[in-house]
Amino acid sequence: MSPGTSIEIAAALTVLVGAGFGLPIPWAAWRLRQTGHLPTFIGLFPMYGGPLFPRVSHRTFTLVLLSFAAVCALDVLAGLALWRDDRDAAILVLALLPVEAAYWVAFALPIPPVIAVVRVALLAFGWRALA
Q1: How many domains does the chain contain in total?
Q2: I want to staple 11 with a disulfide (CB 3.0 to 4.6 A). Which of 21, 67, 82, 103 is the partner?
Q3: What is the domain extent for residue 101?
Q4: Which element (helix H / strand E) includes 108?
């Protein structure tokens, strides 16, 4: 794999995580407001229903959800810029990881941390290909 390819894969994974976890948030917030319950992921478990949910009011939880949507949107934008081999975008992707990690813990999201490890490794491998 070339360094440029690793950057493209890291960019695609960044966009995938940002969009995949960010796009459902408005619907989840709406459902919480309408029903008092979080929607479930194909009937298996409540979406974004980690340890934060029972500890705060629905209003506060909705605000946290919406702030996570903003972070996810930044992730998507950073991923798109990273696709163009932008070193500043790579720095933004790395800077967002600790912020995202706080949300991953609050919402008990197990998949993004695994993908984050892969993204960091791909960025490290392809760093010299960045402009």
Answers
A1: 1
A2: 82
A3: 3-129
A4: none
